[in-house]
Amino acid sequence: MRKIITLAVVAATLLSSAVVAEAQQRRQVMLDKVVAVVGGSSILHSEVQEYAEMLVQQRRQMGYTSDRDPMNEALEGLLEQKLLYNQALIDSVDTNTSDVSAMIENYMQQLISEAGGIAELEAKEHMPIFNYREMLRQRYEEQSYAQAMRNDVVGGITVVPGEVERFYNSIDKDSLPMIGEQYVYAHITKFPSSLKEAQQRTKERLLDMRERVITGKTKFSVLARMYSVDGSAIRGGEMEPAPSSMYVRPFAEALEKLKPGQVSEIVETEFGFHIIELIDKKGELYHCRHIVIRPTFTRDELMEPAHKLDSIARLIRLDSLSFEDAALQFSDDASSKHNGGIVSNHDVLERMGVYDGARKTATRFLKEDFGSQGGKSLEDYAALMRLKVGEVSDSFQSADLKGNQMSKIVKLVEIIPAHTASLEEDYIRLEEMALQHKQERIFKEWLDKKIQAMYVYIDPEYRDGEFVNKNWIK
């Protein structure tokens, strides 16, 4: 640890500084101590401490605490993650590292902004930024492989109605879960009528970029940094090498046709419009960079469908038009317009690729279903909170799951008060609980076997804590 010391510092200050330095060095050694090993992966005390602090912070935000020691809980969580990661490598489980790279870059930009610059972040973390980025890459990549391995174990598990009923009957009636307040609502959505024109403008922008790259006027990476709208932009659009199967089909098909150095024609996917440059290909791994942009609209173009929806809302409030008829005539949402505009989780299931009935379509939404995790927009929730049952909102701006901008109005159809779960009223929620219970049971059985088969060592100093799975201590 380097220090700048002036000649005017007295002996007492020197002694104090030495004591502080020694204490900090001892703390650093402690932070770097290996406390456990799983397979070929070690767990540092600093990792456990950081994870424990995150757990405490998350619980404070959610308004509850745990009786369990957060350090011990964090250690067990990391033991499980390391085991999953090592087993994923053994089983050659695939994961999309390009998503990891984008997530890291977004997070890095957030950290740099919060710290006030790269130099400030390096000082805060006591390491060069490229070392910190590599540390994050390894961490997030490990988490990605661990999640992929867990999905491989439980992803194909389903429950049938008989299992749901048995799960419900197995719960003590005094311990039945409470279902929070739920909302049933309908919407009418409208995209700008100039969507095709905006898409054409987007294609023309990409054609111009492609021409500039091919003629050598501008490097592909420079244009990606300037215009691409996803996390790879910070790296000049560069993606981690990956098999084509890791990309959505239109992107993969275009990629497979390229030779190193070639730039694709415009490719449309659910994420926007792309051009792709293949850097090289080794075996089945494609190393490429891309630029992705989405259609943008002028304020007048965005307000055009909003004004139309406000006119429709006025007619509905005057009883000149029913919401159901308006949804059928005017809504751009194909999944709800034939059902009176009633909103469901159909779009979320479709995006997840769930078509086999493993999860049922739901039309009741809890507060926590609104937001990035639940799939329903926070704008919807904000509009619903201003309504009484039966009322219709003014128009507001929103976006679908693909990021396409649109206007919408919503109608609050019903508020279902918080209540004790019942098979008749809450089958879908109970089905989710039964499925989760079955997944947890099967995963635990799998985990117990893998713990016995894989090398696991925990430092004696850390063995006295309360482990939920007693098999960790061998």
Describe this structure in words.
By secondary structure, this protein is of the alpha+beta class. The chain has three domains: 11-156 and 442-472, Porin chaperone SurA, peptide-binding domain (Triger factor/SurA peptide-binding fold), CATH 1.10.4030.10; 181-194 and 297-417, Chitinase A, domain 3; 195-293, Chitinase A, domain 3 (Roll), CATH 3.10.50.40. The chain has helices at residues 11-31, 45-62, 70-91, 97-115, 118-125, 129-154, 161-170, 195-214, 220-227, 249-256, 299-317, 323-330, 346-352, 378-384, 427-453; strands at residues 34-38, 41-44, 178-179, 182-190, 267-269, 272-282, 285-293, 365-366, 396-399, 405-416, 419-420, 456-458. Strands 8-4-10-9 form a four-stranded antiparallel beta sheet. Strands 2-1-12 form a three-stranded antiparallel beta sheet. It is globular. The two termini are 39 Å apart.
Secondary structural class: alpha+beta
Which CATH first-tier class of the largest domain would you pick? Mainly Alpha
Radius of gyration: 27 Å
> Low-confidence parts, pLDDT < 50 over ≥5 residues?
1-31
Number of helices: 15
Task: Indicate how many domains the architecture comprises.
Answer: 3
The shape, in one word, is: globular
Write the CATH architecture name of the largest domain.
Orthogonal Bundle
Output mean pLDDT: 86
Strand content: 5-15%
- Under CATH, the topology of the largest domain is which? Triger factor/SurA peptide-binding fold
How would you sum up the major sheet?
A: 4 strands, antiparallel
Quaternary state, please?
Answer: single chain
Strands of the widest sheet, in order across it, are 8-4-10-9
Annotation, overall tally of beta strands: 12
Helix content: 40-55%
Give the ordered list of helices and strands: HEEHHHHHHEEHHHEEEHHHEHEEEHE
Report the end-to-end length measured between terminal Cα atoms.
39 Å
User: By CATH's scheme, which homologous superfamily of the largest domain applies?
Assistant: Porin chaperone SurA, peptide-binding domain
